[in-house]
Design a protein that fits this description.
heterodimer; A: 440 residues; alpha/beta; Fumarate Reductase Iron-sulfur Protein, Chain B, domain 2; FAD/NAD(P)-binding domain; 3 domains; five-stranded parallel sheet; 35% helix; globular; B: 432 residues; 2 domains; eight-stranded parallel beta barrel
Chain lengths: 440, 432
Amino acid sequence: MPSRLDAERSEVVFEDYKGAYTPAQAVLEANRCIYCSDAPCVQACPTHIEIPEFIRKISTGNVKGAARTIFEANILGTSCARVCPVEVLCVGDCVYNELGVPPIQIGKLQRYATDAALAGGERFFEAGTESGKRVALIGGGPASLACAHELRRLGHRCTIFEKRAVLGGLNTTGIAPHKLKADTSVEEVDWILGIGGIDVRASVEVGKDVALEALEREHDAVFFGAGLGADTLMGIPGEELAGVEGAVAWIEKMKLGRVATGEVKRCVVVGGGNTAIDVVREARTLGIPEVTMVYRGTEPKMPGYAHEWKAALGQGVRAEWQTLPVAFEGDASGAGVKRVKCLRVDDAKRPIAGSEVTLEADLVLLAIGQSKLGELLASLAGIEIARGVVVTDAAGRTGRKKWFAGGDAKNGGKEVVNAAAEGMAAARAIHAFLAGVGNA
Amino acid sequence: MPDLSTNCAGIRSPNPFWLASAPPANSGAQIQRAFDAGWGGAVWKTLGQPIQNVSSRFGGTTIRGVQAAGFNNIELITDRSLETNFREIYDTKKKYPKHAVVVSLMVETRDEWRDIIKRSIDAGADGLELNFGCPHGMCERGMGSAVGQEPRVNQEITSWAVEYSTVPVLVKLTPNVSDIVPHGLAAKRGGAHGVSLINTIKSIISVDVDNFVLEPRVGSRSTNGGYCGAAVKPIALHMVASLARHKDFGIPISGIGGISNWRDAVEFMLLGSSSVQVCTEVMLRGYRVVGDMIEGLEEYMRTHGFETLDQLIGKAIPSYSEWGDLDLNYETVAKIDAKSCIGCQACVVACMDGAHQCIFPQKPGDEAHVVEGKPRVPWIDESECVGCNLCKIVCPVPGCIDMVAVENGFKPATWNQHVHEGAQLRPKKGAH
């Protein structure tokens, strides 16, 4: 499948921000682990990987066993090792922080073990005895992949419906390439699908190419893991100008195809979340000389992670805090965006009259959020949709029989590891549901 | 300024740190560099009929990432000609008259002993060390530990050496015996001026699990070697102390076995060593480690008000008691300093699985307990704590767990006092 990716796509120039460990580095780091009891790092992981256990296995040379421990809890352990915000999850809760010494680099150790397993062609799991049940999964991202893999272990047939040509969801199309490139994501997808019995119907859009009702009729259960939709627009003048793009769309183009940045001198990124921080770093890495993040809030209150912003600053990114774009302007030639007209805002994010600022820009990327896709299920009675996300219980059950949900479509947009945890939990709920059906 | 000048069985050196007879003391050039680095003395690599060595020769045991915590070797005595060795001894002594150059010897017949002793002393040896300890190779030829394991042979050969020598004679003892005392006493009866111990412990360091061969591998096979390094220190301390406290022994000891730093050296001295010998730590880290050894010892002496080594040598021996004379009513319990606790709960699992099940993640019935703002400080049921030390040993934060003596109202009473005088013992703890 990697061969299907464009070998010259823009993301290939990116280098890993956190490099792979050599065996010597991995063993040295693994030996630092205290092997805590009821470890805080495990509690901090949404998938509850037995972290001290896999680290101990690395230290004893049982790297394959380490990978097995990781994948038991999280089949997306390969991508999570790279994309997890470990600084605020497992690593952030390492007891070494309390001691004031560098915490264990859990993400890098996890990458070491999982990379070795994939490179060695290791397989740890087999499909369960065929149950005769069929489950449809809408969306081919981390939530559906985790769900489908677990369902296969339990013996249920799965079909994944993905509107794109490639699977992996944001892992393939949206993660900053200094963390994870599309080819690694696609390799991981292939490895997960290697359990067998998961049919993939790519380039098929549910609700358009396949009716929801038909899906429900033909399957014993349905998992909705469609993720999020298109970039949110600002609804201000000039948004239609060439050079004003949604950040997620632009990132996808960069990861799967090519973005032209050679002529771009000044890039303005609107937003203060993690997508905004990713995209400013990407713009800098691709050689855009001046990259400015425009955020209506303050630096301490930005929703993006502080450790990521620090790295962005290290790449020479600038910021305009408490600043709100009000219009995009081109020049007379109409060639595209040239300026961003902004107003300063007060602490309540209200515009301050007479505070106009104009920023020069020949590329504007909007990273203010993505649309929610819950409304796709609006026609199905019993499914509650709140502010665009599908409402479920903790196990992922919706209010409608047969229907389950997880990942960004359910949580509104969290980490890959949350999607993996929710997909796994939903698989168990689906299994319980199917077992109940079988007994009836 | 504390005075480190050393006199071990009449062999004098500017400080108590000697290189043990081993690869770091193989040649004059090496020993002279060691003296320049600060070593007070050196025991020359054992002289005898030069041998042929194998390759490979050394093995290390790695424990939780600590490389060569234990070490072994299958190297034999000197493989260089005696003429070369004696010329270099002469040269070294001439350049370093104040440093101790002790020559280790291992030969078979009485004539050979007489000859090699004369040549050693002619070359300038300040003392001799009789190698009755080597547990591999040489013992197969009736030397080394083959001598050290037989008190009568030990005594006889020692008496020859003492007869022929005009300088002090140390007998290097093997630990590969069930009780070191008869062997130390045999050396004394033979007239030895002192003993040095321990030599290495018979060992197989590891097995190459892919090729089914012992390490260190010599082609398709290997042999047992001599175990040394930091891991053997407790065995060595016990043997040193066993001799030092024995009423009939009373001759000087040069302590050897896993000494890696000044603190180890102090421990050997407190148990009766008047000099200490180091090999493995130098093999792993180089001669430069002596700088910290000297400085650390000086600072230790300053802190404790010792002016000379005599004032500390043997100072801990009286504390070495029989089990039956230990106070059974002495009671300690573990206390956790919540301020320094990092919440790893290593103590919880250690106590639960390896000790007496008295440390818990939370106080039962008080699951929300937060100490010093920390939710993961374990709770100790002191009524069940037997004071075993395991929690303190596994705790990664020095000083976080302290064993605190408890006033329990019982007068001191030993097992012997209990059995013979009916002394009252406190109720047992943790014995359900």
